Prior knowledge:
39% helix
Amino acid sequence: MNDKEQEYTVWLEAEQWKRGEWTPDDDSTDAIVTWKDGSRWGATFVAYQHIQTLTEKNKRTGECLSGAYLWMREMILVDQVSRSRIEEVIQHLITSGEFTQVFRDL
């Protein structure tokens, strides 16, 4: 583990769900990064496929103008919503200096 990885921890909402409820290729989850200084930053990771799933559901239910739009706060689109992918994206955002532009201060 390098120094950057030791500076924070990552909590994923999906890891609190019942076994079998998390579908990394078609799901979304909130993520909270807690830094050593106690500051917390949040974002929502969404699999590309989940956008289509939500749009189809909203067309059926009438939500979001029957699927005409979709929004999520601090949404980060990824190919899969797995811990490894989320940690990889977080590390990239930190390294590239984009973390505070993408995550929100909680």
